Amino acid sequence: MESNSDMKDVVNLLIEKKMTIATMESCTGGFVVSSITDIDGSSNVLKFSAVTYSNEYKIKMGVSKEVIDKYSVYSINVAREMAKKISDFANSDIGVGITGKINRVDENNLFGDNNKIFYAIYDKNNDIYYEYELIAIKDTRLNNKKYIMECISKSLFEILNNVCY
């Protein structure tokens, strides 16, 4: 699969539906938003993106410290917060939050499962969260980012095909 083929369909659907998107990424380091900006017309739909590797910056972007402390920064709960807070911050229709550990132990955040990636997609107009969990593939960090991005683009495509406005 060409790495951006699915994201092109997502961007085209967002344009067609006159919707916008924003992302808050951690373990993917901006790979998802980079894939969006590789598509012609993305400037019509992308509102904002933040790469929040540290807990400090997740909190500065509005993620609850209490949620991080209770569930771990590596949890679907934090991915949900990331998706909603970035949607609120950017006033976008769709917010995407991604967190997780890709084949490594985080000495600053020992709590939370290794090799699990969590992402949430928030549909602001319908106040609905879509939640996903992946297991990191035993491969390079770059190939994991591609895998995560492909999963997210498929999820977004499915969600966007089913939303009505």
Biggest sheet layout: 5 strands, mixed
Radius of gyration: 15 Å
Distance between the termini: 31 Å
How is the largest sheet built, in terms of strand order? 2-1-3-4-5
Order of helices and strands: HEHEHHHEEEH
| Beta-strand share of residues | 15-25%
Give the overall shape: globular
DSSP helical segment count:
6
Low-confidence blocks of residues? none
Structural class: alpha/beta
Question: What's the layout of helices and strands?
Answer:
Blueprint: H1 5-16, E1 21-25, H2 31-37, E2 46-51, H3 55-60, H4 65-71, H5 76-90, E3 94-100, E4 116-123, E5 128-135, H6 141-162
Parallel strand pairs: 1-2, 1-3
Antiparallel strand pairs: 3-4, 4-5
Structure explained in plain terms:
With 165 residues, the protein is an alpha/beta fold. The protein contains six helices and five strands, in the order H-E-H-E-H-H-H-E-E-E-H. Strands 2-1-3-4-5 form a five-stranded mixed sheet. Strand 1 (21-25), helix 2 and strand 2 (46-51) form a beta-alpha-beta unit. Helix 1 (5-16) runs parallel beside helix 6.
